[in-house]
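Students often ask what a holo structure prediction actually looks like on paper. The answer is less mysterious than it sounds. You provide the chain, you provide the ligand, and the output is a string of C-alpha cells encoding the 3D arrangement of the protein together with D-glutamic acid.
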Amino acid sequence: MADTRPIGVFDSGIGGLTVLREIWKVLPGESTIYFGDNSRAPYGNKARSTIIRYSLQNMEFLKSKDVKMIVIACNTASAYAYEALKDKAEVPVVEVVTPGAEVAIKATRNGKIGIIGTKATISTGVYKKAVERCAERQGKSNIEIYQATCPLFVSLAEEGWWDNDVTRLTAKEYLTPLKEAGIDTLVMACTHYPLLAKVIGETMGEGITLVNTGEAAASVVRSVLEENDMTSSGTAAPGKEFYTSDDAAMFESIATPFLGEGLPSGTKQFSTDVYKVEN
Ligand code: DGL
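The corresponding C-alpha cells follow.
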C-alpha cells in the first residue's frame, strides 16, 4: 500500500535545501516537510551537547507532523546527533555522512581523499572514520585522508556569491593544501558547498571528483523507502511544506536562489525550542 506521509527534512537553516532538491529529483512523487533552524544557526561552531539538543528538538517537531522518515540534511548535525536520533525517531533516519563516504571511496582512483566541512564536523573526525569504514567494506586499502575547514564558504553561499572573485580567492586559500596533497576526490561535507561547486572544482583543477553528500543521501533515501515498502504512489500532487524558526519572509528571500523561482512558498515560523528533550 502506498505510504503518502511526507518525508521530514531538517537543517540548521537554508543549506539543507541543497539536499531537499536532490530528494525531489530522485523522488518527485514524495511529499516533503522542511524545517530550517535559522534562528539558532549556524550549528557548525556550536558545542556537541547543543547540536544534539537542537537536533532532537527538530526531530520532535517533524514527528509531530507524522513524517515517515527523517533526513538529517545538515552535515554537522549528522556528524554529532545521528546516534542520538536514530533510536528515538520511531521512523527511519537518513544522515548525510555515510552516503558521502561511500561515494568518495567508489570514486577515488589514487586513494587520496579530501574532506571539507564546518569546524564542528571536521573536529568530530566522524567523516574520516566513515571513509575508513567504507574503504574496508569496499576492500580498498592505502586510503589517505586530508581534511580542511572552510567556514567562510557558508556565508559566501548565503550571500549568493557562488562564482565571484572573493569566493575564488577564499577557495584558493582554503583548498591549496588539499590540492598540493594530490587528492583526486573531494567530499563537500557541508550543505552549502555544492552551491560553490564551480569555483571549488576550478580551484582544485582537472581530474578532481567532487562528492555532493546531498545527492548521495538522496539515493539512500530512495533505497530505504523502497526496501521498507514506504514509497508513495505519486498519484496526488506532492506537498512541499516549509518551516523556519526565524522570520519566514527572510527565509524565503535567502532560500529562493537555492530552489528556484517560486519556492519556497507559504513558509511558516515555528520554534522547536518548545520541546523539552534529554540528551
Ligand atoms: N548546515 C551546516 C552543515 O552542513 C552548515 C551551516 C551551519 O554551520 O549551520 O554542516
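The pocket of D-glutamic acid is lined by residues 11-13, 15, 41-44, 74-76, 118, 121, 154, 190-192 (CB under 6 Å).
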